[in-house]
Every structure is written in structure tokens, then in C-alpha cells.
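Review form for a predicted model. The reviewer records the input and the model, then writes brief findings.
Reviewer: anonymous (R2)
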Amino acid sequence: MSPEIPSDHSEAQAGNLSEIRIQVRYSETDAMKFVYYANYLIYFEVARTSALAELGHPYWEMEKRNVLIPVLESHCEYLKPGRYGDSLTIRTRRWRKGSARIRFEYRVLRNGEVLAIGHTEHAFMHPEGRAIRPPKEIIGLFPPWEK
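Model under review:
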């Protein structure tokens, strides 16, 4: 049984989509010449920080304001292997879960073919390690989560 693959987006979600391209480097592959599984989480991080920057809130600026978003949960389903030299597209959607948690969903594609899907969930934290309320100007950019 193949996993459920969420659709890209509806018209209502069109503004909730970011996209980046990554060229697979040799150092990102394993002995089978496939993208090493843990590198997909790095691709997610690159896509997430790019999405935040597109929204006008680069992560490095958030850190200067003492706002961190540590990963609470991560998940990736590997459907087909990426290979050295592939040009990958990572599509990212963002959601708000409750009042203080955010979720990013990712789709990794090669020429429109889905290679992996995943998500990360994050809380808002001060650098001293305590939970904080998310800044309104940031949390307001995340629509309510849809299953």
C-alpha cells in the first residue's frame, strides 16, 4: 500500500506555497548513489528557512529578536530515490497548529515525480530555553492547519 500523498495545493492555498531547487551533490549520496536518507531533513531545513525569508522573516533575523523555532517532530517518507546530479524541487506549505505551534509540509520532486514527502513541527522558544508566545506578525502568516 502506498502512502497518501497530499495534493499540491488548492486555489485557496496558492499563497501558502514556497518552492526551491536543489542540485544533488555527490557528497549527499550513499554507496548506492542514492541521496542519503538524512539529507532529506537538511533539504527540509533549507526549504523552511527559504520560505521564512520569502515571508519577510529570515530565520537569522528571528534569532536576533530572540525567537527560535526548534523542531519538535520530523517525519519523512521515501517513495523513490534521488540520485547524484538530480535537480530537485522542494515545495513547502506552512500551517499553524493551535496558538503556539507551526507545521511545515514538504514534497521533494524530480521532474514532477514525487520522491519524498514529510513534515516538521516547531514551537517558539527564547534562546534561554523557555517557551514564548509567537510574535503576531509571524504566526499570522501561518493559516490554520488542514489535515
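Findings: The longest helix spans residues 39-54.
Further findings: The first strand starts at residue 17 and ends at 23.
Recommendation: see findings above.
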